[in-house]
Amino acid sequence: FEFVYNYLYLANLRANWDEVKRQAEKAPQPEARRYVLPLSIDKADTGKNLVTLPYTTATATLRSDETVWLEPEVIFSGPRHAFEFPQINYKKYCGKPYTYTYGLGLNHFVPDRLCKLNVKTKETWVWQEPDSYPSEPIFVSHPDALEEDDG
Fold first, then answer.
1. pTM
2. Domains of the chain: which residue ranges?
3. DSSP tag of 73
4. 92 to 9, 88, 138, 140, 141: CA distances (angstroms)
5. Where are the alpha helices (DSSP H) in the chain?
6. According to its UniProt record, where is this protein located (predicted)?
7. With contact defined as beta carbons under 8 Å apart, do 135 and 116 qualify?
8. Of 28, 37, 63, 117, which has the maximum CB count within 10 A?
């Protein structure tokens, strides 16, 4: 909390940039993770992985006390790079299988790139330009789009 409250004010970022970077390196490594929540559970499946999706390594295991233990699949992790505010093409893919998500990339807690992530292959694309500081991405589809990521 001290880092957030003391260093991330704009005046402190401008005055103490080297100190901000030094403190940011102590922060936990951010990751984008996929959790899979089973929608139907049979008590006979106790101890088994309830996730049957072929494209993920995430697991959900029913325990003997009838709780479900979730283990995520890490779909994005990079040294000192975050993937924040993930967005998809909600207009066409909300509640449906999708392939691409877009996020705000941060380096040392400063947003300085936009990222596109293929959640199936984990391939990433990055847009970044010097002295550019984007904000949360919002996907805007091309009016005649045929592909999920046409926008």
1. 0.76
2. 35-70
3. E
4. 38, 9, 14, 11, 9
5. 2-7, 10-15, 17-24, 90-93
6. Cell membrane
7. no
8. 117
